[in-house]
Amino acid sequence: MRARAATVGDLENVFSDLSKRISDEYVAAGKDSKIAYDNLMMNLKEGRAHALVQGEKTVALIAWHENSDAADTLFAAQEDFFSAATVRFCKRHIRHIQALAGNLPIHSRSWLQRPDVAKWFRIIGYVERGQENGANLFELPPAPAA
After folding, report:
1. Which of 54, 107, 113, 144 is deepest in the core (most CB within 10 A)?
2. Diameter of the chain by CA atoms?
């Protein structure tokens, strides 16, 4: 797996076969796929979105937006994305995104109560910070100074 700057084509490809678990997450967040698509498109146009590519196929997109105290993530994926290998890749890549965001804490949210989601975030290095607007808030603390 590798990451690169996302394109509009990547966004369209991922949303053409969006994972049901991601669609369910959007619904639980009170959004639909169109709103998520538009939010990802905005970040893509601002240069804050990466395509996660497996072989030659884009299987996910991750975008981020800095605010005063953290960088918030947005995510979309096809079912092919979800595997042990992608978790290992994401553990490294999220630190790269964190560096691009000025080493701010990274905030990611999950509206579904799935034990595999919490486990996935813990493996990557996130700490669960409780509830925020109906979502479980996960935070990746800043990387230690080298």
Report:
1. 107
2. 41
Give pLDDT tens digits for 69-89: 999 999 999 999 988 888 889
> Token pair 């925020």 is at which residue?
132
* Measured distance between the N- and C-terminal CA atoms of the chain, rounded to whole angstroms: 26
The stretches of 1-142 forming alpha helices (DSSP H) are 8-16, 20-28, 33-45, 84-100, 115-124
- CA distances in angstroms from 45 to 6, 49, 92, listed in the order given: 9, 8, 24
Q: pTM for this structure? A: 0.92
State pLDDT tens for residues 87-144: 889 999 999 999 999 999 999 999 988 888 889 999 999 999 999 989 999 999 998 8
Taking each continuous run of H as one helix and of E as one strand, the counts in the chain are 5, 7
